[in-house]
Description:
Layout: H1 2-22, H2 28-53
Helix pairs in contact: 1-2
Amino acid sequence: MNIFLFILSSVIFLASFPMFTYSFVVPEEYAALLFSAGIFTASAAFWIPMVILGRSER
């Protein structure tokens, strides 16, 4: 299960890059929303391994 969450967080982190890129291409009223969504997804990608996976109890 830890491998699945790690792969999921990697995919989410990589998905944030197109959001940052497309925020400069879309109409201006959507640019701030898309850039903020990119920041949120990048933050979520770091949040998953740190909070959900946590430390191993060994």
